[in-house]
Design a protein that fits this description.
With 484 residues, the chain is α/β, with parallel strands linked by helices. It has two domains: 324 residues, no CATH class; 136 residues, 2-Layer Sandwich (Transcription Regulator spoIIAA). 57% of the residues lie in helices and 7% in strands. Strands 1, 2, 3, 4, 5, 6, 7 and 8 form an eight-stranded mixed β-sheet that branches. Strand 1 and strand 2 form a beta hairpin. The longest helix is centred in the middle third of the chain and has 30 residues. The radius of gyration is 32 Å and the shape is elongated. The relative contact order is 0.12. It is found in: Membrane. One of its GO terms (biological process) is transmembrane transport. It comes from Hippocampus comes (Tiger tail seahorse). Keywords: Membrane, Transmembrane, Transmembrane helix. InterPro entries: SLC26A/SulP_dom, SLC26A/SulP_fam, STAS_dom, STAS_dom_sf.
Length: 484
């Protein structure tokens, strides 16, 4: 109880301080992989009910593997009545879904397939006395009413405070992951801070009623999505129905077979499980995204849902770091007589500017990849300033260069007679360079070093030194990405 209310306070405080921005690191491939892995875990947990097997539910890591081992070890104990009921229910549910999808434009309201299945199965089980005659697994006694409210014991704070922190993080990440997944599917946006605040509020009042910690539920969310629920009215109706069941109608579901509920949950997972067939297309489109999907899905399914989410986020961040550490670099050439410059390796018939090298670094430049930036620049233009200065000292001869410029390490190139010119820089970079006085005191050299387009920079470079040393033009943070 106290762990729940402490978890709620953490989430509310995080929302007040606007910490929901961390959700931007939940990439689409990671979310899809997480949803697929979690769906497979849910299917695994529900599979035993389809067969009527009475095996203990595994708690901890490796639920999918251990559960399937137990299922195959006890497959000979399958309850034929539960198996037949499951087959009939799945057939009816899938048929209802297919009809709903095919004729959704003509149907005014969603087909209540799940309600029909639950009602019909409950009546058949009750009047057929399936539990007595065939030993089917039924819901059994469902207690009604509420436990009297009780104030959480603050004496437990030292014991549960630390446990509440990861619980808050996981519940937030899980909820936002599902929200982003369904937002992408249904075309709406998610405000992470609002979600965080809502989760916190949803855990305060229930903490006085001996409730579990509130978070998103993948199975229930998919059931609602598959039945066509779109607004909070559906949640209000669901809450009212659950309230009536808890207070009055619970005994009527005594004879409902557990396999029926399992069928509803499994059929609702079709959308997420279908993503397995999209893996080849993902691989062709982006190997990086495909690997993120596979890693997240595998970790979620084979280890646990919570660790799978953590592994997916961590691996996505590692991929981002790898991309910034190994960006694409290129030398640009001019397209005919236009002022358009593009990658000479990607396009044909591009002409490099006379005595000028245009260098493009296609990644944000920061402290972690500054060495990579310099190495790729030196390699692209074929000159390392330090080695050039060493040759001058040893041989007393300075060879003629045919290139121009770079950022950050400007002094090295200046010492070997290379002019530094920047083009297509964004405003944040310009502000940083001004603060660092790269353009001199009072920005007196800005007009000589900073240009809005590559073409203007090249014209300036050729005017300044038409027959002397040439230049390397650096195109960093281009205003328009190259077309591929």
């Amino acid at each position: 109880m106290f762990c729940q209310i402490f978890n709620a306070l953490i989430l509310i405080c995080d929302s007040v301080f606007r910490l929901g921005f961390v959700s931007v690191y939940l990439s689409a491939p990671m979310l899809d992989g997480f949803a697929t892995g979690a769906s497979f875990t849910i299917l695994t947990v529900q599979a035993k009910y389809l067969l009527g097997l009475k095996i203990p539910r595994h708690q901890g890591y490796g639920t999918v593997v251990v559960t399937w081992i137990n299922i195959f070890a006890n497959i000979h104990k399958t309850n034929v009545c539960d198996l037949i009921t499951s087959a009939i229910c799945i057939t009816v549910l899938v048929a209802g879904k297919e009809i709903q999808e095919r004729y959704k434009d003509r149907l005014k309201i969603p087909l209540p397939t799940e309600l029909v299945v639950v009602g019909g199965a409950t009546l058949a089980s009750h009047f057929g006395n399936l539990n007595h005659h065939y030993g089917t697994s039924v819901s059994g006694h469902i207690p009604t009413g509420f436990i009297p409210p009780q104030v959480p014991s603050f004496s437990l704070m030292p014991r549960v405070a630390l446990d509440a922190i990861p619980l808050a993080v996981i519940s937030f990440a899980f909820t936002v992951s599902l929200s982003e997944m369904f937002a992408k599917k249904n075309g709406y946006t998610v405000r992470p801070n609002q979600e965080m605040f809502a989760i916190g509020c949803c855990n305060i009042i229930p903490s006085f009623f001996h409730c579990f910690t509130t978070s998103a539920a993948l199975a229930k969310t998919m059931v609602k999505d598959s039945t066509g629920c779109q607004t909070q009215v559906s949640s209000l109706i669901s809450a009212l129905v659950i309230l009536l069941v808890l207070l009055f109608f619970a005994p009527f579901f005594h004879a409902l077979q557990k396999c029926v509920l399992a069928c509803i949950i499994i059929v609702s997972l079709r959308g997420a499980l279908r993503k397995f067939k999209d893996v080849p297309a993902k691989w062709r489109a982006s190997r990086n995204d495909a690997v993120v999907w596979l890693i997240t899905m595998s970790a979620t399914a084979l280890i646990s849902v919570e660790l799978g989410l953590l592994v997916g986020i961590s691996f996505s961040l590692i991929c981002i770091i790898y991309k910034t550490q190994n960006p694409r670099v290129s030398l640009l050439g001019r397209a005919g007589d236009s002022d358009l410059y593009e990658d000479m390796e990607e396009y044909q018939n591009l002409v490099p500017p006379s005595r000028v090298r245009v260098f493009r670094f296609q990644a944000p430049l920061y402290y972690a990849n500054k060495d990579t930036f310099l190495k790729t620049l030196y390699k692209a233009v074929g000159v390392t300033p330090f080695l050039e200065m060493t040759n001058v000292v040893v041989a007393l001869v300075q060879r003629q260069l045919d290139f121009h410029t770079i950022i950050l390490d400007c002094s090295e190139f200046a010492e070997i007679g290379v002019r530094v010119v920047l083009a297509c820089c964004n405003t944040s970079l310009i502000d940083t360079l001004q603060k660092g006085q790269l353009f001199g005191k009072g920005d007196k050299d800005m007009s000589k070093m900073l240009f809005h387009t590559v073409h203007h920079a090249i014209l300036y470079a050729n005017i300044q030194q038409p027959d002397k040393k040439s230049h390397v033009q650096m195109d960093i943070f281009p205003s328009q990405p190259s077309i591929k």
